[in-house]
Amino acid sequence: MSNGYRWPFGPVAIITPFNFPLEIPLLQLMGALYMGNKPVLKVDSKVSIVMEQMIRLLHECGLPAEDVDFINSDGITMNKLLLEANPKMTLFTGSSRVAEKLAADLQGRIKLEDAGFDWKILGPDVQEVDYISWVCDQDAYACSGQKCSAQSMLFMHKNWSSSGLLEKMKKLSERRKLEDLTIGPVLTVTTATMIEHMNNLLKIPGSKVLFGGEPLGNHSIPEIYGAIKPTAVFVPLVEILKSDNFELVTKEIFGPFQVVTEYSEDQLELVLEACERMNAHLTAAVVSNDKLFLQEVLGRSVNGTTYAGIRARTTGAPQNHWFGPAGDPRGAGIGTPEAIKLVWSCHREIIYDIGPLPKKWALPAAT
Amino acid sequence: MSNGYRWPFGPVAIITPFNFPLEIPLLQLMGALYMGNKPVLKVDSKVSIVMEQMIRLLHECGLPAEDVDFINSDGITMNKLLLEANPKMTLFTGSSRVAEKLAADLQGRIKLEDAGFDWKILGPDVQEVDYISWVCDQDAYACSGQKCSAQSMLFMHKNWSSSGLLEKMKKLSERRKLEDLTIGPVLTVTTATMIEHMNNLLKIPGSKVLFGGEPLGNHSIPEIYGAIKPTAVFVPLVEILKSDNFELVTKEIFGPFQVVTEYSEDQLELVLEACERMNAHLTAAVVSNDKLFLQEVLGRSVNGTTYAGIRARTTGAPQNHWFGPAGDPRGAGIGTPEAIKLVWSCHREIIYDIGPLPKKWALPAAT
Amino acid sequence: MSNGYRWPFGPVAIITPFNFPLEIPLLQLMGALYMGNKPVLKVDSKVSIVMEQMIRLLHECGLPAEDVDFINSDGITMNKLLLEANPKMTLFTGSSRVAEKLAADLQGRIKLEDAGFDWKILGPDVQEVDYISWVCDQDAYACSGQKCSAQSMLFMHKNWSSSGLLEKMKKLSERRKLEDLTIGPVLTVTTATMIEHMNNLLKIPGSKVLFGGEPLGNHSIPEIYGAIKPTAVFVPLVEILKSDNFELVTKEIFGPFQVVTEYSEDQLELVLEACERMNAHLTAAVVSNDKLFLQEVLGRSVNGTTYAGIRARTTGAPQNHWFGPAGDPRGAGIGTPEAIKLVWSCHREIIYDIGPLPKKWALPAAT
Amino acid sequence: MSNGYRWPFGPVAIITPFNFPLEIPLLQLMGALYMGNKPVLKVDSKVSIVMEQMIRLLHECGLPAEDVDFINSDGITMNKLLLEANPKMTLFTGSSRVAEKLAADLQGRIKLEDAGFDWKILGPDVQEVDYISWVCDQDAYACSGQKCSAQSMLFMHKNWSSSGLLEKMKKLSERRKLEDLTIGPVLTVTTATMIEHMNNLLKIPGSKVLFGGEPLGNHSIPEIYGAIKPTAVFVPLVEILKSDNFELVTKEIFGPFQVVTEYSEDQLELVLEACERMNAHLTAAVVSNDKLFLQEVLGRSVNGTTYAGIRARTTGAPQNHWFGPAGDPRGAGIGTPEAIKLVWSCHREIIYDIGPLPKKWALPAAT
């Protein structure tokens, strides 16, 4: 009788970023605990007060104090701690640069949720323009674009050109203002860096600013942060695919910034090629109710959490489903029972072989 | 409607060792192919002719030639190829030393099946001594101990002392001879290294050779290989646990070599501590039909493929179940549908959100 | 530790009809055997020679002779045998009339696959008219309509009126001829009964024969069988729903006979009401690639095996999936691992509670 | 793309008995609701006030009033209602006699949890006598034996004869008294009936009263109920198996009454034969930690919820697992997600076949 179990790793580490100070560390922490691990948790120190309070609440509710270690430190200290403590598993959510360093340092005992250059494709069936422009605005600019699932690139079928979609997106973006925090400071990219990136894009033939592209005014946001208007830059599809341009165009800007392009009926192959050449396959959306179109795009792309249908978005996760980059054996997941099991436990197989011995068993003769 | 899929990685690599020239690469290759990947396969060049022939057979049976790339090279060349080709996933079976290097080089895009210092515990209920001595002989010395699942350490309850078990194991080991290949050359450890390891063990107080411990005679095996009689060295349990000795005693010798020790009723804690302190949790066996004893040992150990019951062995895998080290997020699996899915594919979630829009939906007003 | 098992019933019976002399009894028999039961099999005696030969082949291939009992009898004898032998489970495939009698006789120890009045709905999106007319012809008239999954009623959206669909179906039906067995004898309904049924339908206001409706000529088929041309009768939707007509219109004719009707955009509610009021929810098809339409119809209907999409049919089962009427706890399934488990085994839960006793356990004091 | 769903039945009925006025109807009702059914609930009218209050509480908590119909009636009225309303599924918990009538009336659209003649086998390994005698007392006499899972027969290995087990059981039974309700009225069997049954058993050669066997004194329990002391009657194993005696000995008495017998090492076959010949395979217990013994008994018996191990009992269900008689396709389950799905929903398979058509498809030529 052979039984498969999921077994905890034991000592594990969790490192999470600034942008969701409660949701990401809490979901990961609880998943680790549910599977029976002993986690040490480090949240980006800019926001770690949130989880500190949460842990106090958990203690109040009965969590034994020795079940979780909470550390408040900079990254260098944490890196040193990881190398010395040698946890069996580390969950890292954050930038690709740090992720790759940690993966090497920890020799792969790691799961990652890193950057995503998340795309959305609008299919040939134009409908619900008001709704879709609103979802695009939310996907690209809510939280000032500082979600790993934020919409970074929009592929628009030519049928949408005359639908008024871009005008509506422009109008919605212009409603955003500092007063009500519908736009706000960018914590990891400066204004100058974003403007420079835009200017580099604008050197590509055919590129243009669709809207935004200017620093925010009338504010006291320090210069080490970024502060720009919600921005969309159009780049022609054929230019995007050129090897001199591709890396530049698909560079993730962790702020309110997206690239928009357009494709005709016979250019779907180019769109799919672009999606395939991107590296960080976090989320994606295919906005269409055309079943054959959906089938074609879904069957030839790989992004992890992929929304399909006329209501598709890039940023709905993770309140009700799996999350994490696809196509990478280090890719983490979050929220679902399956994700919790795969990230926070390993397989153990116990085979009961209790006999009896076969009735006629005898010691095999020597050869 | 949310659907979870397992999605292939695409370009993957498989690197396998000398000791199972057909079984390991073939199981891994077929698993990779079943899940839709495009593998490049490298088998240890000493034995790669076996899989070369197998692949020719697969081609004959209809495998498209472009589905698998087969490379015959040394490890340095393969390492270079991996760094340049950047496969999405690499499966490595082999030594821990190479495994750790590759894990760092590939920044963790790897699954491992590496060494195991596999233990067997004989419980308090003495029975079927003939059978169990024969299984011990097979587990420790079949294939000259060159299985990753070979029995490396035997913890024997004191009740077995007067059962004649060790004498029977000695007798069985002495039946092994070069003529019928029941003993043979060791490919990765020299005779001198094994004798030296034994001598180091014998410096520990209370240690002694139970049987074997001498080079094989009358043979033409080259000196770069190993050639010793099936060997068992007794080391007292309390000595094993001393920090000066532990690493030495639990060093894996990939040849016909095992350490034997004994424990009394009240020393089970020490046995479990020893198992816990070992690092490579591949396979294990708990030889007992005492349900409370089984429960205690299984509940407090972590090895991946763990046999339990009076017929338990360490080396039954992988013909009918999961395989791979436990407690390591890089741990691979082999053979079962679950293992194939976890090793050779990643999760992708597709959420259909096709509408209709809520009947009263209207563009939210600006704040 | 609690383990759930599927456990065989032991002695079981299988009763199958004439129309698939090999497929139905063989799939059911093998399912019963796989789960460890001891079946007695009765196939309709008109065709039982087929399974008799099959069982001889199975014996030749190694099936132990005592694993299956095969009985060749009429229904009355079989009924008597069931009442005396009292099998733990009986699988009956056949007419609803016999099914209901057996269900009462066996006090519910039965699973059924009985008649289906299978509907197909053509959605608003007209396309692939050649293909869909061909599928309709196959669904309604292949095997002379003697499949439990045969298309009995076609709901056609008004958009199809001018598509030429009905003309194409007529043309295809007229290609069928006795010479090549594309039409043939009906084994359980006489020509007179079918013609009488048609005439009853034609009394409904607005009804008309679309094609067929006449006896086949130039043949020697005995009068106890049926022999008519592939027939379609149009009945207006509002008439179908009248309580005086509904039972008549939805009476299953196990021959090459279907009812066709038409609905306008605002009559979908009536179509869904009609589907809901039918009793035998075997198979169904929703021919459309309109995602919102599919969602609406699938979400509000219950048929067991329901095809959806522009290539949908009613008669594809059971080569690759579950089969059986939905909405009935006696409904059987066929072919899939899940169906085999549910039909041919019951649940058994074994809970291991081996101790130890809590350390401080003492006999509770008397109150 | 083929998706399997569990689909609710729609209108369903639930009929539950007196002995668990809250637990059984509530678990069944919630299961039916979770799967989306519309239940009508009838609880035995002697105790229906309990669920009436519970439903008022559910309404208070937000359950829409139209989600559940609650009926307070006698069985004849309910039977009539079922025949007229024709629910798609009925869950009946209660006596076998009514169960069989309903199963025929409803032509098998029913799931049953009926009587159990539940056995316990004590294996050869004698241990924890205090604990096991206490569990036996609880299993047989708690709630005055009015659980469907109550221990009705105890098979005791000879090794237990000198253990003092029976004496301890006697002593525990004698602690039970009306004052603290550790014994109480029996609602469906009169004192006279139970005494008569005992006297019939005592006519079997070798039978004797172990303890109890007398009416309770000093009480005002009406004569339509039963009132006897906790009773155990010993009957020799070989007598039990005689065809003249078997039906009598295994008749379920729904009160504080059990049969005890003894077996020797070589009589295990007879014990297993007795268990196999019983009809109502509800629960069972195998009290032993001997793995080979457990394997033998579990592998050759069929009861639904079977406890194994030295702490095994017959009456632990259903707080943490599946429940219901095994070996009967009408057998219900309770409490687990699997049970809820199997009892309260049917399978529906939706196959999306949306195309496109094969590029070279053309209408097949006429033959």
From TrEMBL, chains A, B, C, D:
This is Aldehyde dehydrogenase domain-containing protein. GO terms for cellular component: mitochondrion. Belongs to the aldehyde dehydrogenase family. The keyword ATP-binding does not apply. Residues 6-308 form the Aldehyde dehydrogenase domain. One of its GO terms (molecular function) is L-glutamate gamma-semialdehyde dehydrogenase activity. GO terms for biological process: L-proline catabolic process to L-glutamate. InterPro entries: Ald_DH/histidinol_DH, Ald_DH_C, Ald_DH_CS_CYS, Ald_DH_N, Aldehyde_DH_dom, ALDH7A1-like. Keywords: NAD, Oxidoreductase.
